[in-house]
Amino acid sequence: MYDVNYHRAGSINEALSLLETAEDGKFLAGGQTLIPAMKTRLAAPSDLVDLRHVAELKSISITDREITIGAGVTHAEVAASSEIRSTCPALSYLASFIGDPQVRHMGTIGGSLANNDPAADYPAAMLALAATIITSQREIAAEDFFTGLFETALDDNELITAIRFEAPEKAGYGKFPNPASRYAMTGVFIARKRETVRAAVTGAGDDGVFRCSELEDALSTDFSASALDSLTVPAENLMTDIHASADYRASLIVAMAKRAVTMANG
Fold this sequence. Notes:
Layout: E1 5-8, H1 12-21, E2 25-28, H2 34-39, E3 47-50, E4 60-63, E5 66-70, H3 75-80, H4 82-87, H5 89-96, H6 101-106, H7 109-115, H8 122-128, E6 132-135, E7 139-141, H9 142-145, E8 146-148, E9 151-152, E10 160-166, E11 170-177, E12 184-193, E13 196-202, E14 210-211, H10 213-221, H11 246-264
Parallel strand pairs: 1-3, 2-3
Antiparallel strand pairs: 4-5, 5-10, 6-7, 6-10, 8-9, 11-12, 12-13, 13-14
């Protein structure tokens, strides 16, 4: 490690002000990505602005079917929330299998989305749920928020403050985890709202999270696992690495989609 200035923010406005005056500052949410990057000197900020004590970022509210989750809510809190479990249980299920207990109690939904790891779970959920990412400056549709591997539409000094979406009628998540990291080697989140089906894939795309039109088309006419029996997803633009080939990930997309639909149907 190296010398770094630590600041404990008490409000969103204070956090933004502290970052603006820093030479090369970074927001610190759960620190599950930033702290390891600093230890290996892949990141070397001059200042850290700790968001963990900003009460404005920690709320969960539901009005009718509209769910708003503060960016500082941890994975464990999303998993344990009775409000979320009763309205969108698939999201609580997703959160309950992120990392290990230590990660779930430190990591936050806002931090995960801002980092946009190509194998993270939340991006698939936000894309499938047609969520809106609320920041200190504007509101960004999930469709426009994720722009590539570890890339988002966030500007410098822009802070995610909350996530908002309308709960779907049905939703499910299927994940094939890496046994060591528990990141998704392939994960599929499927949401049905009225006659619209949205399916988003994480852990498989060369360019990060993406919607899968093949799944959406098949499930729009028959929202059942059997509708995917003869489906094939092209391996083009899928990732090949030491864990799995693009062809294998293509087959995993269909398999995980079947799990997600089975969950969605109860």
